[in-house]
């Protein structure tokens, strides 16, 4: 009587185990959505203090200028879920950009946010040596004279959900904020702001 090789049997068993694990993960994810009805957290940029930019006396012909910008950014995070806590873990990245030019970057603090909670925190973003093209410098200078400087704030942070005493899988929260400030200074004021969260937050 013919018998399949032992390696073939082991391979088929492992494939079956993997398929069952995938099926159980899908079932658990669907159950999580239907039972807890998770809502995405909300974010907003509350304040932005800016150092390291000085365009006074700068000639448009100067091409070798180097800046060392520092942005002190205050972020408000709201967890609207009544049954879910959120762990913000290490490995985050926060950056501020103007058009397609990255101005500075940094990280968020790692912390736990309880259910139905609002947490306000500050993060310092820096760039030790930033060279701006003449086009970008001219645009920033003109926009500062008008009191309307558009900036983009991008947040990417690994997180986990806490349900009861259980921590779930790790996922990535991605946030983009369009912020307009009146000037690149320590006492800058936010003219307008709008943040959006990646709608696939629980699936990535």
TrEMBL record:
Its main location: membrane. GO terms for cellular component: plasma membrane. PANTHER family: LATE EMBRYOGENESIS ABUNDANT (LEA) HYDROXYPROLINE-RICH GLYCOPROTEIN FAMILY (PTHR31234), OS05G0199100 PROTEIN (PTHR31234:SF2). The lineage of its organism: Eukaryota, Viridiplantae, Streptophyta, Embryophyta, Tracheophyta. This is Late embryogenesis abundant protein LEA-2 subgroup domain-containing protein. Residues 74-177 form the Late embryogenesis abundant protein LEA-2 subgroup domain. InterPro entries: LEA_2 (IPR004864), NDR1-like (IPR044839). It is a single-pass membrane protein. It comes from Papaver somniferum. It comes from the Eukaryota. One of its GO terms (biological process) is defense response to other organism. Keywords: Membrane, Transmembrane, Transmembrane helix.
């Amino acid at each position: 009587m013919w018998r399949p090789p032992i390696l073939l049997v082991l391979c088929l068993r492992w494939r079956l185990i993997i398929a069952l694990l995938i099926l159980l993960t899908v079932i658990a994810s669907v159950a999580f959505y239907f039972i807890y009805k998770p809502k995405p957290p909300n974010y907003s940029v509350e304040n932005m203090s800016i150092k390291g930019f000085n365009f006074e006396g700068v000639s448009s012909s100067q091409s070798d200028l180097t800046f060392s910008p520092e942005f002190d950014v205050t972020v408000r995070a709201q967890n609207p879920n009544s049954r879910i806590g959120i762990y913000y873990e290490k490995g985050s990245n926060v950056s501020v950009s103007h058009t397609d030019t990255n101005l500075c970057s940094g990280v968020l603090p790692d912390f736990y946010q309880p259910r139905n909670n609002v947490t306000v925190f500050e993060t310092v973003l820096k760039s030790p040596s930033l060279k701006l093209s003449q086009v970008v410098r001219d645009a920033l200078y003109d926009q500062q004279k008008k009191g309307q400087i558009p900036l983009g704030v991008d947040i990417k942070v690994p997180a986990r959900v806490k349900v009861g005493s259980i921590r779930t899988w790790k996922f990535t929260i991605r946030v983009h904020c369009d912020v307009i400030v009146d000037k690149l200074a320590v006492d800058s004021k936010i003219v307008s702001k709008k943040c959006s969260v990646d709608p696939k937050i629980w699936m990535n």
